[in-house]
Automatic annotation (TrEMBL):
Family matches, as InterPro entries: KsgA/Erm, rRNA_Ade_diMease-like_C, rRNA_Ade_Mease_Trfase_CS, rRNA_Ade_methylase_Trfase_N, rRNA_adenine_dimethylase, SAM-dependent_MTases_sf
Residues at which S-adenosyl-L-methionine binds: N17, L19, G44, E65, D89, N107
UniProt organism field: Tepidiphilus thermophilus
PROSITE patterns: RRNA_A_DIMETH (PS01131), SAM_RNA_A_N6_MT (PS51689)
Protein family: Belongs to the class I-like SAM-binding methyltransferase superfamily. rRNA adenine N(6)-methyltransferase family. RsmA subfamily.
CDD domains: AdoMet_MTases (cd02440)
Lineage summary: Bacteria, Pseudomonadati, Pseudomonadota, Hydrogenophilia, Hydrogenophilales
Protein name (Swiss-Prot/TrEMBL): Ribosomal RNA small subunit methyltransferase A
Location of this chain's protein in the cell: Cytoplasm
Keyword terms, alphabetized: Cytoplasm, Methyltransferase, RNA-binding, rRNA processing, S-adenosyl-L-methionine, Transferase
Reported function: Specifically dimethylates two adjacent adenosines (A1518 and A1519) in the loop of a conserved hairpin near the 3'-end of 16S rRNA in the 30S particle. May play a critical role in biogenesis of 30S subunits.
Residues of the Ribosomal RNA adenine methylase transferase N-terminal domain: 24-192
CC annotations in GO: cytosol
Length: 268
């Protein structure tokens, strides 16, 4: 049976685990360090454990909540001039409609955390930073370096645009209902413009996905359908390596060589 928290029945399908440990809440808010006048947006405010101290520090907050009951409660609790509440799915929300630079925060619903991170990565230009609580294992994959077992598609796709830093772990007992796994706080800060120049993003995404889809294979085999031997020799990337040995810069080089090789599509 699902747990009842402050008169609300926690919904598993919305990934609801509410923070209840005041020390952890204080540490998260201190890690975010909100300043008056900053544009903060919280994803999944829930019962407002982070929302209230964030509003107190920043003066105003935008929040996106999918659960109608929780949205109604938040509307009752906070006046509109303090909380702009958007009732809807953060996965479909156009973050370009909010003022930049944005500081994005949240104890994310774990069931949609990866697609949410990919969605938000598309707005990196408008983001000052993002501070999230996620499953520890996901945070380790986000921050992983080449050569480690945790390094994969998520690491490369996020590190293309952000510096990723794990802040601290949060034990299951800090939440109600108590989750099965440990969580971590992670900070993502957009990299300076021009750090990596990707010619064609879909090609980059395709190469990274294909390389890690068969991560035990060599690049030659995993990318058989995409990259010729000539591409490897031109980029100086050893085709006998596995994907996990390639840095983000290597993937960018490989993808750019491939997109430049594509036949020009004629206009007529
Ligand atoms: C892990 S709970 C965190 C709640 C609260 N921030 C806390 O720390 O106690 C995740 C919250 O995200 C909401 N949520 C789930 N999926 C969502 C989505 N796609 N868009 C926006 N909010 C979502 C849930 O209803 C829930 O309130």
């Amino acid at each position: 049976m699902s747990a009842e928290v402050q008169g609300h029945r926690a919904r598993k399908r919305f990934g609801q685990n509410f923070l209840r440990d005041p020390n952890i809440i204080r540490r998260i808010v201190a890690a975010i360090d909100p300043k008056p006048g900053e544009h903060l947006v919280e994803i999944g405010p829930g019962l407002g454990a982070l929302t209230e101290p964030l509003i107190n520090a920043a003066g105003h907050l935008t929040a996106i909540e999918l659960d109608r009951d929780l949205a109604a409660r938040l509307r009752e609790r906070f006046p509109e001039e303090r909380l702009r509440l958007i009732e809807g799915d953060a996965l479909r929300f156009d973050f370009a409609t909010l003022p930049a630079p944005l500081r994005v925060v949240g104890n994310l619903p774990y069931n949609v955390s990866t697609p949410l991170l990919f969605h938000l990565a598309g707005y990196a230009d408008r983001i000052k930073d993002m501070t999230f609580m996620l499953q520890k294992e996901v945070v380790e994959r986000m921050a992983a370096e080449p050569g480690s077992a945790a390094y994969g598609r998520l690491s490369v796709m996020l590190q293309l645009r952000f510096a990723v830093r794990k802040c601290f772990d949060v034990p299951p007992g800090a939440f109600v209902p108590v989750p099965k796994v440990t969580s971590s706080i992670v900070r993502l800060t957009p990299l300076p413009r021009g750090r990596y120049e990707v010619d064609d993003f879909p090609t980059f995404a395709r190469v990274v996905a294909a390389a890690f889809n068969q991560r035990r294979k060599t690049l030659r085999n995993a990318l058989k359908a995409l990259a010729s031997a000539e591409i490897f020799s031109r980029t100086g990337i050893d085709a006998c390596l596995r994907a996990e040995m390639l840095s983000v810069a290597d993937f960018v080089r490989l993808a750019n060589a491939l997109s430049r090789e594509k036949p020009e599509t004629s206009a007529d």
